[in-house]
Amino acid sequence: MTEENNRRPLIIGLTGSIGMGKSTVAEMFADEGVPVFDADAAVHILQGPGGALVEEIESLFPGTTGPEGVDRQKLGAAVLGNREALSRLEQIIHPAVGQMRLDFLSANSDAPLILFDIPLLFEKTGADGVDHIVVVSASEADQEERVLARPNMTREKFEKIKSLQMPDAEKRKRADSVIDTSVPLAETRQQVQNCVQKLKASLA
Ligand SMILES: CC(C)(COP(=O)(O)OP(=O)(O)OC[C@H]1O[C@@H](n2cnc3c(N)ncnc32)[C@H](O)[C@@H]1O)[C@@H](O)C(=O)NCCC(=O)NCCS
Ligand SMILES: Nc1ncnc2c1ncn2[C@@H]1O[C@H](COP(=O)(O)OP(=O)(O)OP(=O)(O)O)[C@@H](O)[C@H]1O
């Protein structure tokens, strides 16, 4: 077997605070051919209709699920202002997401680069096993404008979520690369392309 066949993919951990542009940037990495594991999408599967965690969530937080699985508005109202409740929820969700991430890694073991989109990478020690951390960042004004424009979002909910997340300035300090989304989309895409090229070159 050649050395190349033995090599595991270089794992990029993509993170950033609410509304900074993670999903948009993750799609740009996918456009460059990088397989993307989306932790939020994994949570949606686990909580969706017939999802593996729906029953357990109902027993921990009665009244927060229905025929469509978890009602995220109701579950959010139960946990987002209550650290102890949120921690109980995380204790069942994070191990299940971790397993899905491992399965994804096995399924893409031939790729040179893969990307884990992990919103809470710094907050929940998801940095273990990640080779290169990319932080997606924008100005506070852009972040606020984007988030408050979303349906079902209030300033109160936004402030609660921000208080649960590591400040952007701290994330930027800990990043291996920063992608700026307070610039036109084409410039952000260029930054993503540069990052992919640099990482591929580091493998050669
Ligand atoms: C609390 C829930 C039901 C709220 O759902 P809702 O659709 O209203 O919001 P959404 O998921 O889009 O989250 C909004 C923002 O809150 C942040 N957030 C979500 N969970 C957490 C958390 N445990 N700690 C800090 N921030 C969080 C997200 O990163 C995002 O920036 C949902 O976020 C959830 O089930 N969270 C627990 C699982 C988790 O930790 N997910 C985050 C990454 S995998
Ligand atoms: N240069 C840019 N790069 C990325 N996104 C941009 C840019 N300019 C404007 N936007 C817009 O900003 C928004 C970012 O939202 P996105 O869902 O990607 O954020 P997110 O960080 O994934 O949010 P959350 O943490 O809530 O999941 C999108 O509507 C996107 O079109």
Automatic annotation (TrEMBL):
Localization terms from the record: Cytoplasm
Q: What is its EC number?
A: 2.7.1.24
Q: Native species of this protein?
A: Parasphingorhabdus marina DSM 22363
EC primary class: transferase
> Any idea what this protein is called?
Dephospho-CoA kinase
**Can the keyword Transferase be found in this entry's annotation?**
yes
Catalytic reaction equation(s): 3'-dephospho-CoA + ATP = ADP + CoA + H(+)
Q: Show the Pfam families listed in the entry.
A: CoaE
Q: Which domain of life is it from?
A: Bacteria
Q: Which HAMAP family match?
A: Dephospho_CoA_kinase
